[in-house]
Design goal:
about 90 residues
């Protein structure tokens, strides 16, 4: 267990960040699944709306350092590719 006051605070702040990161990553994954489901059902218009939201979420998470920039770019590209195939 940490003894220094700053170490204890660091543990608390790291836990808060970890939980925030988990929430953001989970919501991004959920939105990506919605797009894939809409594409598989042939709902192109609905998938387009989701794509703009997901792209925004991915970019935001990448800027904050929650996910890597290449991860965001790769997923946006893959989702757009799936959408264009419909």
């Amino acid at each position: 267990m940490a003894k220094l006051k700053s170490s204890k605070k660091r543990i608390r702040s790291n836990e808060r960040r970890r939980l925030r990161n988990l929430r953001v990553r989970a919501s991004v994954r959920t939105e990506m699944k919605k797009i894939e489901q809409a594409v598989s059902e042939g709902k192109a218009q609905e998938a387009r709306e989701y794509l703009s939201e997901v792209a925004s979420q991915l970019d935001s998470a990448a800027v904050k350092g929650i996910i890597k920039k290449n991860y965001a770019s790769r997923n946006k590209s893959r989702l757009a590719k799936k959408l264009n195939a419909v």
